[in-house]
Each structure stands twice: as structure tokens, then as C-alpha cells.
Amino acid sequence: NAGVMQNPRHLVRRRGQEARLRCSPMKGHSHVYWYRQLPEEGLKFMVYLQKENIIDESGMPKERFSAEFPKEGPSILRIQQVVRGDSAAYFCASSPPAGDGTEAFFGQGTRLTVV
Amino acid sequence: AQKVTQAQTEISVVEKEDVTLDCVYETRDTTYYLFWYKQPPSGELVFLIRRNSFDEQNEISGRYSWNFQKSTSSFNFTITASQVVDSAVYFCALSEWNTGFQKLVFGTGTRLLVSP
């Protein structure tokens, strides 16, 4: 039973480019959460999605960031026109349909570097 | 508002020493969960423990033990006879009923360095 899969593990983008981070939840999981870890800081909640729905995006920056979790395929965190301050580790977690964030399993993270 | 404080930024110990990592939390909810995660140098997050607010019983798992005290809003983590492989950043986290337990609030982490 594969765990939460995130790819790529490392991503380098130049300022102004777009970054797409992918998260495949554990099999049978329908809830996905994205967290961001800035250098030397703890993780901060960004967004919680269920299939085809954004449930809570209270932690998402208002501009340039978007997330989706389509009916088929992985969840995508998209960052447009990246800036140096977007450099961070982005973690995805998933939980089962009847579960909540306390049962979430984390992926290994995507480390985004903006140069 | 919910908050998790890990006042110890970095702790250095020598192998075989015991070490306690402090975690203090703030919440208005009476129903919540507390967690500890380990982040080794490789960067992934390793789940260590989840404890709900109604269960104040201390827990021991091998060299790890946790002391949950609601009276002081603390959930401290002790590693007995530390080993070099324990070197990592450790995060304490909180999840509340009023968010449907759907988000975790993390502390800033404590970096533990265990030297041989």
C-alpha cells in the first residue's frame, strides 16, 4: 500500500515561472491537505480539499497560489510567477473519506527553490 | 486562537543522555488532539504520536515517552538514552474540534543534535 506520493521531490524555478506540485493521496483517501514549511520554521496549513472541492483555503496566499483535486488524478498545488519568498518545502497529506486531519499521512514533500 | 509553542530552538546532548522536548499549547476548545512529529535530515515527516484531550495518561513507547498535562497545557516529549539517530527536528502540533480536526497547527520545532 503506497503512501502519499509527492512529485517532484525537488523543483527549481526561475523567478516569474510557474511551479506545479503534485500529490497522489494514499489509495482510498479522498481528503488532501497542503502545508508549507518555510526555512527554519514549522509547517503552516494552506488548504484542505476533497475531490473536486476546496473545503478550506484559509491558509492560501491570496494571489498566485491555487490548488485543485480533480475527480481523476493527483491534487495539484500551482504557484504562478514564483518569487524567492516561495522557496520552501511543500507537504501534502491525505486522510480517508470518514477521517479527518488527525488521521492524515504526510508525503515526503517537494522542495521548491526559486532562483 | 490556537497556538503551539516550542521554546527550545535547539538542544545538544551527548549520546545516552536523556532529553526532554517541551511543548506548550493554547486552545479554547475542550476537545482537541496533540501530536509529535520527527523530521530527520532527509526531510520527511515521521508521525510519532497522537493524543486526544480526554486522555491524560502518559505514554511510553520504547525509549520515547510523553507527558500530557492539561493543567499546564503542556505535552512534553522525553527521549531516554538518546542515540545519534535521534538527531532531527521535532515538531509538536495541535488540531481542534472547531476546525473539524481538519488542520494541524505546528510549533516552530526543536532541533535535537545528539553527538557520539
**Major protein interface:** A-B, 24 and 24 residues
Molecular shape of chain B: globular
> How does the overall form of chain A come out from the CA principal axes?
globular
Query: Beta-strand percentage of chain A?
Result: over 45%
Unreliable residue stretches of chain A:
none
- Regarding quaternary structure, how should these chains be classified? heterodimer
How large, in whole angstroms, is the Cα Rg of chain A?
13 Å
Mean pLDDT, all residues of chain A: 93
Query: What is the strand tally of chain A?
Result: 11
Uncertain spans of chain B: none
Descriptive notes:
Chain A contains no helices and eleven strands. With 115 residues, chain A is mainly beta. Helix content of chain B is 0%, strand content 53%. Chain B has no helices and twelve strands. In chain B, the strands form three sheets. In chain B, strands 2, 5, 6, 10, 11 and 12 form a six-stranded mixed sheet that branches. In chain B, a hairpin with an 8-residue loop joins strand 10 and strand 11.
Keyword list:
heterodimer; A: mainly beta; 7-stranded mixed beta sheet; 4-stranded antiparallel beta sheet; B: 116 residues; mainly beta; 6-stranded mixed beta sheet; 12 strands; 0% helix; globular
How are the SSEs ordered, and which strands pair?
The complex is a heterodimer of chains A (115) and B (116).
Chain A: E1 5-7, E2 10-13, E3 19-24, E4 31-37, E5 43-50, E6 53-56, E7 65-68, E8 75-79, E9 88-95, E10 105-106, E11 110-114
Chain B: E1 3-5, E2 10-14, E3 19-21, E4 24-26, E5 32-39, E6 46-52, E7 59-61, E8 64-69, E9 74-79, E10 88-96, E11 105-106, E12 110-115
Parallel strand pairs in B: 2-12
Antiparallel strand pairs in B: 1-4, 3-9, 5-6, 5-10, 7-8, 8-9, 10-11, 10-12
